[in-house]
Specification:
globular; 4-stranded antiparallel beta sheet
Length: about 70
C-alpha cells in the first residue's frame, strides 16, 4: 500500500477549516486504520486537539477539533 496523494501540498496556504487529506493507493481495512494513524506523524507550529476521520476505505482526513489557529504551519 502506498500513499497516493497528500493535500495540501507543503508550503501551501489554505483556510482554517482545511483538513490534511491522505489518499492511499489501496483500500485500508477498518481494523488496520488505527495502526496507520499511529504511524503517521503530523507536527504543527501551534498545538491543537485533533483527530482522524475516514471518509472511505482509501481516504483519511486529519483535522483539529474546531479550526486551525490562524497562521498554523
Amino acid at each position: 500500500m502506498l500513499l497516493h496523494t497528500i493535500v495540501p501540498e507543503p508550503d501551501g496556504t489554505v483556510g482554517v477549516t482545511m483538513p490534511i487529506s491522505i489518499e492511499f493507493s489501496d483500500p485500508v481495512a477498518t481494523p488496520a486504520r488505527a495502526a496507520i494513524e499511529r504511524h503517521l506523524k503530523v507536527t504543527t507550529s501551534t498545538p491543537v486537539t485533533r483527530a482522524w476521520h475516514w471518509f472511505s476505505s482509501r481516504r483519511g482526513d486529519f483535522r483539529p477539533k474546531t479550526f486551525w489557529p490562524s497562521g498554523t504551519r
